[in-house]
Amino acid sequence: MGNKTVTWRIAGGSGDGIDSTSKNFATVLMRMGYHVFTHRHYPSRIRGGHTFAEIRIGSDSVSSRGDEYDVLLSLGDSFARNESENAYYGNEEIKPLTENLHDLRQGGILIYDSGVISEDELPDDFDQRVEENNWNVIDLALKDMAREHGRSIMRNTAGVGVTTAVMGIGIDGIKNILEDSMEGDVLEQNKTVLEKAHEKGQDYNCSIEMPEKNNFEDDQVLVSGDDAVSYGAVDEGVQFISGYPMTPWTGVFSRLSQIIPQNGGVAEQVEDEIAACAMAIGASHAGAKAMSGSSGGGFSLMSEPLGLAEMTETPIVLLEAQRAGPSTGMPTKPEQSDLEHVLYASQGDSNRVVFAPSNIEEAYEQTRLAFQIAYDYQMPSIILTDQKISGELRNLDESFFDRETNIGDIGSVLTEEQISELPHHDSGRFNRYRYSDELEGNVSPRPVPGQEDGNFLATGNEHNKQGHISEDPVNREEQMTRRVSKMEDAREDIRESDHVLQTRFGSDDPEFGVITFGSQQGTVSEAVDRMNNSGFDVAGMGVSQMKPFPEDTVQSFIDEVSDCLVVEMSSTGQFENELVKHVDLRRRPQDITLHSLRKYNGNPFRPQEITERLIEVINNE
Hints:
Layout: E1 5-13, H1 18-32, E2 35-41, E3 50-58, E4 69-74, H2 95-98, E5 104-113, H3 126-133, E6 136-140, H4 142-149, H5 155-166, H6 172-181, H7 184-201, E7 220-224, H8 225-235, E8 240-243, H9 250-262, E9 266-269, H10 273-285, E10 290-294, H11 296-301, H12 303-312, E11 316-322, H13 339-344, E12 353-355, H14 360-377, E13 380-386, H15 387-391, E14 393-397, H16 416-421, H17 473-496, E15 502-506, E16 512-517, H18 521-533, E17 538-543, E18 545-547, H19 551-559, E19 563-568, H20 574-582, E20 593-598, H21 607-618
Parallel strand pairs: 1-4, 4-5, 5-6, 8-9, 8-10, 10-11, 11-13, 12-13, 16-17, 16-19, 19-20
Antiparallel strand pairs: 1-3, 2-3, 7-14, 12-18, 15-17
């Protein structure tokens, strides 16, 4: 990757304002002309526990976290449960320093708050490691400085003031952010703390060479995957959302719960995920564009109503935001181990489409596509994300979101005039579930409750054309075959759409390949660039269309290479299992060999981990 980058990391305890400080600083850097990419690591605790946030800064677009970082601002943990090294979880107060040193690069800068982290608490080998790694250490009592000119809670502002000094950045942008969010004495105190800290930071003889700035032609916005999913849903005209909070699904749920009522829709927080999914199905049945979702454990509860939506052919869009499982697992850590759960959860021969976007652009576009497929083909669409893509922030041209909306279009729904011209039962009930030989395609258009002559039954049992329960063998085969055949119709529609769902990158004539899905694509792409810049011929592919699986596209990619590395955040290789299921590894004279790179320790991949494994593959180790 030719793009020079600098990475800044801020660490503290949950409740110390780490996330908000990093977002504000990222916004300032974006406004200055830099591309930014953020990564957040936090525990599943309300207060206390080591948390950090990174900002990777580049002159060109950045798609991945880096291997190391250049500047560490360690504030210590203000909400530590204890200060004793002999306690069960150790000395938590100092963990924002000790647990971050291994990633600080040679010659990097370490700023720590000696008002919270005292010298006698430092590890015994701290001085030795500083010398070996040539680190520049700035120990300032940031908490005391903040208290002197304002309040101790303003030590974050003091830390950013020192940071800007060593990074050669002015503080006007920081002041603008402060003015946007506060006023009065609090604002003036924060400004004073910022100025004093910036002055103090200039006393130290250390600095970081920053990337070149851009003159962006378009206004920039700083957005996350959660933002992009929410905007896509709004532009498709979502009118109803129901849910129960669960990390990391809560991000989308909270955003849409604010936006949808402002647009005249309804948002409901309910007692559990079964109710959430069932309520959204009811709203969709009534004629609204509806959405719900959850994370692993909550989505498990949705499997029964998910089957109801498939049987009644009621369109619905669900979001499944993965986290490390099983059970409660690690609620705030990313993993991709819900893939098989999302593809196959339900009763009988299930029927749904699944998209796993890899970046902000895909999160927006594939959310819109998920609504279109769901409402055109009367089946569930599922958007599969994870904590990584949910919370990462990246700057993007604001004009990207200047799209035509699809508000008011609820898919394959009949008008009253059309209903009057179509077949009814002698009882007067409408033939809602007609057979394929009566249709153009396999979608039987539906009335909306309240339309004249559109009365039918919707039941989770197998049913006849009017929706009455039926166990007749001929009817069962007709209904089941038609429902399942809709998937192939949807496949063709997806194939002919303008959306990029499988992204190929790297060498045009590769010897080796790397394939991944969802949120790891950006990291894999950077690793592939590094390999090709080092003289290897490597190509990569990121897959987003998980169901129906894009066999032809993936098969063509696999056929280009002799060895292919499968990268995923799963211990059991769930994505690799899908590859083996859908592609032929033996149709060439020489079989294609799949190699695995799996990570499931709660941290997403870094580019170096992928390049190291690729070199092992190339060297046949």
